[in-house]
């Protein structure tokens, strides 16, 4: 029964895929679109395979990934630390909270021109941007998860003679872990997009630069192939973080 | 007692805000001699003056251009998501065929589409509206599908028992449930739509706040860049506040959950 259900799901998904490709091909044929406007699905596939075999492409991927990972690590750690402080200490929450709320409305993308002015098209600018994006996601989710921890747990900790710092790290952080984990996933998605957006606007190397260059020279097949790669890496990143957090939560 | 706590909270907030401005000013003075990586950091005062200048100048025209792009894309995206979301949520066949396609598109943020939109629609209004609509669509579709499925089974059975035709059931049960969730999704999509406006205008810069941001960046005017960023933040904040208020008026039962 379940086997049949799975088979029909796959079959329907395949029908969907066939419809997309058919509409794609039909649009090209019907409107007589040039290759530079919309290349055929097969050509995009070929380009994708070609990219996978070329070293410059992997250099671009490596550049983007390094920017992302560095920024993610810095922003994530700082964000969780500040989030714990805000969640644990009402004094800190009331003092820093409004400033963070105000900054949160300046979305990371609005910072791109400023980071280009300050740091040029180098690695530092992107790392700062990603760290900024991830930081706010982590501060908000961490402080919110800690603020909603069951007060009974705190009382139990106090009763067992734990110091406030111990309660914060051993009790609250554990109880808030699921919320922080979902924040980590959302932060990864946002951080990865921030890297791509920054590379579209001002950078010297990376996946985003490869795509803008291809778009300027009207190599649309490369543009679409690059977009697919970005999507796959983004999905992989959030999948890996999902696995990592699940292992962390289960120890 | 509660009043006093509120006043002291407000006071602390003001202290925090002043502290942040003070820190910024000190940094600006310290970096004036051209030390470190951040060679040009204007004081808050300089940014304020720039903001006032901008408000007397072209700010309103730029803001109107950006809001126009945003509203057009936001409406198209929300309506498109409502229609397709209800179809996917109510029909197993449509879900089986198109559900995976939507799922495959969702992790690819609309911002990734910027170069392709430029190839397809050029640097004008259309490509920006397309990008914003896509961003909003990808958020709202999840809420629309969820809403269309949210009809409680009891109500559904009762309606059948009362002899309602499928069309009547659709209008009385499915549509209100789905549209409620679409409304919630449309508010959640505010920020991602607004962020997309920024990136789209930074790349395809002809009019708007983003175009202004790129223009002043290219003349190395850091104070003006920061003033434009503040405008973006303020506009996002005001839109969010308006829509949260509207949501409370239209869906009063939701705001009690604190969502």
What's the quick description here?
With 251 residues, chain A is mainly alpha-helical. Chain A has helices at residues 2-31, 41-52, 55-88, 90-104, 112-119, 123-147, 151-159, 164-201, 207-216, 220-249. The two termini of chain A are 35 Å apart.
User: In total, how many domains does the architecture of chain B comprise?
Assistant: 2
Task: Describe the sheet with the most strands of chain A.
Answer: none
Number of E-state strands of chain B: 0
CATH superfamily of the largest domain in chain A: MetI-like
**Uncertain runs of chain A with pLDDT below 50, 5 residues or more?**
none
Q: Largest interface, per-chain counts? A: A-B, 56 and 56 residues
Largest sheet of chain B: none
What is the multimeric organization of the chains shown?
A: heterodimer
CATH fold descriptor of the largest domain in chain A: MetI-like fold
The dominant shape of chain B is: globular
CATH domain fold name of the largest domain in chain B: MetI-like fold
Structural account:
The complex is a heterodimer of chains A (251) and B (259). Chain A has 251 residues and is an all-alpha fold. Chain A has helices at 2-31, 41-52, 55-88, 90-104, 112-119, 123-147, 151-159, 164-201, 207-216, 220-249. The mean pLDDT of chain A is 87. With 259 residues, chain B is mainly alpha-helical. Chain B has 2 domains: 1-41, no CATH class; 43-255, MetI-like fold. Chain B contains 11 helices and no strands. The interface between A and B is large, with 56 and 56 residues.
